[in-house]
Amino acid sequence: MKTKQYVKQVLLTLLMIILSFAVLSFLASCIFCAAAFPRADDPLPAVGRSSVNTEAYPHETIRFPSGANMLTGTLYHAEKPQALMVIAAGFRESGASYTGAIRAFLDSGYSVFCYDATGVGKSEGDGTGGLSQPALDLNAALAYAADNDALSRLPVLLYGHSAGGYATATCLDQPQVKAAVILSGFESPTCLMRETARGYVGVLADIEYPFLKAAHTITCSAQADQSASDCIRDASVPVAVYEGENDAVIPASVRLSRRLKDDDPNVRLTVIAGGTHHDLWKTVEEAALPSQTVSVYQETIRDVLAFYRQALTSS
Questions:
Q1: Degrees, nearest 5: CA angle 260-261-264
Q2: Tell me, what's the pLDDT at 292?
Q3: Residues 6+ apart with CB under 8 A from 178
């Protein structure tokens, strides 16, 4: 009897320890998801991008809702627009800072719609909402365009970088979207957070992962953690994915190049030798690059524009 009671007591103690660990881990994950993504009143600096002036192009400020917050954006008007380019910026960055890309698209005949995401710059929000919030914001931007008489007549092209690239992947099923370019994207928010955490706490990141995933879903939304590669493979529109070989921000294991194949339908995958996380989309004026590297980026920009032209011709 004493042995049975002792075993029972040990098992109950272990159960209490496990339950306590689970509860504390979940609460800690919730606190992390809520506190780790504060407002970005001053969006991350975009070194060199300000050298490209887009103010000369006709544009207007617009506001549209995303959940409980009003987001602020800019709509640049091409003279005879062939399509509407929607830019989904990287995490804590302003869409308007992508001046080189904006100018290239306008000069190619595309009107451009860019915006500050939730909790960034001129947009409302107590915080940035996590790595999945850009997907919700892009959905809201597309809804705004669909409800606008002039914009709804135009085919939509998507251009997303980093967290904006993830957002782009999740919005490929929108009926007005005809093509998309994703730069330096990743598989999913929680996969990225786990891989980043592994660099600091090792295997503990794997132990805490189920709690992080649950907390992220509750804190953000039911759509918080879609698989970008699955969204891309399921898409019926052409998608071009660009990555830098030397990306120091996105761990190799969660890069889209690890999940996609060159023979996936509608997918074009390009890994740029020597490229990093940010310099894939900088124009020559925006980046202090060696002359040999400049030609690589000129070629990439031309490749992106050619991809969009072919997509519009084929749609």
A1: 95
A2: 45
A3: 83, 155, 156, 157, 237, 311, 312, 315
Distance between CA atoms of 178 and 237, rounded to whole angstroms? 6
Helix axes 204-219, 2-35, angle to 10 degrees: 60
Whether 295 contacts 141, CB under 8 Å = no
- Tens of pLDDT along 211-249? 666 666 666 655 567 999 999 999 999 999 999 888 999
Residue 280's pLDDT band (cuts 50, 70, 90): low
Q: Name the average pLDDT for the chain.
A: 83
Instruction: Report the residue count for the chain.
Output: 315
pLDDT bin (cut points 50, 70, 90) of residue 281 is: low
What pTM was computed for the model? 0.86
